[in-house]
Amino acid sequence: xxxxxxxxxxxxxxxxxxxxxxxxxxxxxxxxxxxxxxxxxxxxxxxxxxxxxxxxxxxxxxxxxxxxxxxxxxxxxxxxxxxxxxxxxxxxxxxxxxxxxxxxxxxxxxxxxxxxxxxxxxxxxxxxxxxxxxxxxxxxxxxxxxxxxxxxxxxxxxxxxxxxxxxxxxxxxxxxxxxxxxxxxxxxxxxxxxxxxxxxxxxxxxxxxxxxxxxxxxxxxxxxxxxxxxxxxxxxxxxxxxxxxxxxxxxxxxxxxxxxxxxxxxxxxxxxxxxxxxxxxxxxxxxxxxxxxxxxxxxxxxxxxxxxxxxxxxxxxxxxxxxxxxxxxxxxxxxxxxxxxxxxxxxxxxxxxxxxxxxxxxxxxxxxxxxxxxxxxxxxxxxxxxxxxxxxxxxxxxxxxxxxxxxxxxxxxxxxxxxxxxxxxxxxxxxxxxxxxxxxxxxxxxxxxxxxxxxxxxxxxxxxxxxxxxxxxxxxxxxxxxxxxxxxxxxxxxxxxxxxxxxxxxxxxxxxxxxxxxxxxxxxxxxxxxxxxxxxxxxxxxxxxxxxxxxxxxxxxxxxxxxxxxxxxxxxxxxxxxxxxxxxxxxxxxxxxxxxxxxxxxxxxxxxxxxxxxxxxxxxxxxxxxxxxxxxxxxxxxxxxxxxxxxxxxxxxxxxxxxxxxxxxxxxxxxxxxxxxxxxxxxxxxxxxxxxxxxxxxxxxxxxxxxxxxxxxxxxxxxxxxxxxxxxxxxxxxxxxxxxxxxxxxxxxxxxxxxxxxxxxxxxx
Length: 765
Hints:
Number of strands: 14
Distance between the termini: 109 Å
Strand content: 5-15%
């Protein structure tokens, strides 16, 4: 039978496929074993945990079970064991994939196999796709089958949380039960969704490893090179992608890498980038109730991934078709493939070096020299191993210089052009469905961690204008991230926002403006103008009202200039009148002039005290000031807080016995008041203003403080002694400072109070 007639039979390709499948059956069995250690094991463990949670959901039952705490402790301790087992199994499966590839495509890296397989009466095209099918069958099918069975099990048997679990509260008799559930609530509530997600991601990552491994195998001539460069390629491709993204964001004038940006960028970079993005998305989803939405599988991400997969297949097919059998045994059948990999690595390294601020750090000249030497030495070693002679080493030097110089020019061009205009891109108002911004931009200069979603078009237009101002500032930085405290003679101001467009896409940016004495006036005016415009929109009041109504127990606190710095609590029956007064003053444009008061809203939900929002009231807000200046509408707050402080001290001294007051949370978890006097390197803590509320020194000290007005009083780091609470639950967005003219007296009073507090016989009068 001739080769031509044999290849004409449709059954021969199938026979070849079945032969290669039988030849690699032990790999298939081993893959099934590893597959069962991944998704099915997590399914079994999750099912057990959910069953235990359901059995403990009834509060009356939980009171009766004395050892319930030990049960949940054992679950918590055993969880890492299962995670490690499944993680190791998945990594082993990925490594096994490389072994399968080099077994099925052994004729590319072994002379003896090359002579045998290439002489078979089957065309090169048939052989390639049959071998690709065998590799995918051995590696992907077991994982897919194991995951599908697990998904079927969790769906048919309705593995999930009972209704009672979702109704658990923090005051549950057995608090560890609630805590364990809360940290895993999305897994318990949508267990099938988690399994489906793991199934999809596992299949995609393994398939990506197969396709990339086949591509690298097709350009190598030795088994060792195929294995080494497959591992090398798996790591280098997402690294290069990350470097390119760092270069791009370095040009976007202060855009900090967001979690979603990184996820969308790395997802198409199969296989390692896809795995990293998938894990990151899973962690984000479990903490933000996104499981079941599968946002990572957006149309754009899927299409891009399909293009990457198709590119791997096409390149591997062409390489197998064009390679010559006599090249088997050499390091690289196609030298261009080697140069692409090594040059990409060098460019990736120096892309990060030249755009280090995109990652939150800077490289200095000494570090750049060290990195250059280390990279050059490594590259020369690679070249010598590949067989290049010393006489041609000058070519290596030229290629290295071109890679480094080219990367520098790309970085310089991106920086100079603002990523070719991308850094200045702001969606048009008509294209924006909503914008979510950090509340500190609208309410105060302290970070209270809340975000507003705004749909009002006028409001969105104001936000866009302020973003344009931020982008135009030369002192935008991305390092160090998320710092909004004063350091020396500058202050970092964060500006976070996310646009949701009408086409469903999101556009997220995180900026950080470094405010100094030189640029403060411009920044303060832009912030003031932006807030004035926002205050006159219906959208602002919609958010304000919804925030108050959404609180479990809203407490409206009033802080006024030259008054008791602990503020006054507005009587609940005046809430609607206050909102009406604010609306009338703000919509009439009367929120102008010097800052006279700050109104904050706390949520006293029975477990902790947290600030929801704060609003600045300026001197021309006649209607609002008339309401809050009438002390019959409010009650003093200091005595109440003082009693809480004494109760908390007693609570601590009695080893946490007795009732847990909501203010105890504030006092225990970082809401310490810091008073930073002139020239003091360390803070004097809470007791200074609570030493004794009736002492004359305390009363005098309180009178020295003034309500800080960011617009009129200049930079806060030049305002003298400052008093604030880190999460603002105490001061509700109001900052107090001691003016320069009160410096001497405040120093004396602070010294006297400090000395008395050091006397152990004196405490609370």
